[in-house]
Amino acid sequence: MGIEETLAHVRAELCRLDPAAAAAAARERATYLVDIRPESLRRRGGEVPGAIVIERNHLEWRLDPGSDARIPEAVDWDVRWIIVCQGGFSSSLAAHSLRQIGLVHTADMIGGFEAWLDAGLPVDHPTEPDRPRGPGEGPAARSPRKQESPGGP
Questions:
Q1: Angstrom distance (rounded) from CA 76 to CA 28
Q2: What three-state secondary structure class fits 33?
């Protein structure tokens, strides 16, 4: 099975949210946006306000509540993680992987950060992109940032 078939199969089993629904859901208790984009994309395009930054290659370890490398928000299997990538492709595969390890409430955001921008949702432009979260790390002191909508400040 090639990647297109795999992606279609994975997405058939996922809860997928458009950007407005993802932003609304992130205001609910025990629900978090997780940005898996590399620093170069976050530096160039900006960041989703309030999203937890975790590098894709560490994602399962940071979000598994039984992992010694988890972040503080990974308190149990009922946490809802909404995964965000650049275009909405790798987030589907990442969300599927999290569901496979038991995080069954995981969703991904349709269209990724590009769709977030197209929806006119706010974007942070820190002087330095947020550092990805490491084992046990809570929210770090953030760089000064300017928040704007894609149409202007």
A1: 16
A2: strand
The structure's pTM equals 0.91
pLDDT digits (tens, 9 = 90+) for 88-97: 999 999 999 9
Residue 6 backbone phi and psi in degrees, to 5: -60, -45
Distance CA 76, CA 8 (A): 29
Assigned token pair, 74: 């990974």
Site of tokens 């928000």: 73
Contact 149, 123 (CB under 8 A): yes
92 contacts 14 by C-beta, under 8 angstroms:
yes
Task: Tell me if 84 sits within 8 A of 51, measured CB to CB.
Answer: yes
Q: How far apart are CA 119 and CA 98, in angstroms?
A: 26
DSSP character string of 81-127: EEEE-SSSSHHHHHHHHHHHTT-TT-EEETTHHHHHHHTT--EEEES
Q: Using an 8 Å Cβ cutoff, are 72 and 83 in contact?
A: no
